[in-house]
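Re: your question about MSP domain-containing protein

S., sorry for the slow reply, the queue was backed up all week. Below is exactly what I fed in.
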Amino acid sequence: MPPEYIHDGAISKKFDVFSLGVVIIKIMDGINGMYHSSKMPPEQFIQLVTTKWQGKLQGTSGHSSPRERDMSQVKTCIDIALRCVAEDREERPDIKDIIAELEELEPKIDKMSLYPDQSQDLIDLQRTSESRLIAVDPSLELRFLFEPGKILSCCMQLTNKTNGRIAFNINTNDTRYRYYIQPKKGILPRLSKCYISVTLEAQEALPNMQCRDMLLVQSVNLRQGLTFDDITDDFFKKAVVEKVVEMVKLPIVYVARDRFYSTH
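Result:
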């Protein structure tokens, strides 16, 4: 219920607008969405929901990375929802304004579909088949249970889904080199598995607990006769040029300890 109805029993045309915002937030962030949105600044909540939907779209769209148009829709929807549930009803948009904003978004989405961003990651360009050469577990995001001032680590698993040998190489987009990955590269025999340790150096709390780092897992079929010594950076650079590399992009997420144990 809108705050003006709860406190004063007031009903206006913005009552339904508030209800619309509540519905959108629950769709985008679950039943606790209103609670989450009330406990953080709008920008942080938008980032939280966007990160969550990046993982969902990555797992269901058939692409390792959600397209720009998909994330544009997510951000627009949650931004509209937050304005709909503004405490001051005068700050809430009118229904006609919401419709107009959505209508303006549609041609932008169509344009993105016709002229996709040429700088989009290699993920969509380097796929060699419908199924991945390797399966990555976890498949949606890599989570660190964050504690300030402590070294953090987590584990992931790579599985070779093919009957051939697969070379892999793991990096991050972090330019500060805060992550230590072991093993960083290697060869997976047919239908085999291996575990990867990812360690994050100790650091102070990040602003708003936000993280935009990504773990990048490259994989390529390995020709007969090649050994571990052949798996160099130049080997993968050449494979990228030849478009025979498959890449999985895994968002890195920090989870606060108090949130980890929360029942909400």
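The first helix runs from residue 3 to 8. The beta strands are 134-137, 142-146, 152-160, 166-172, 179-182, 185-188, 193-200, 214-221, 246-256.

Happy to talk it through on Thursday.
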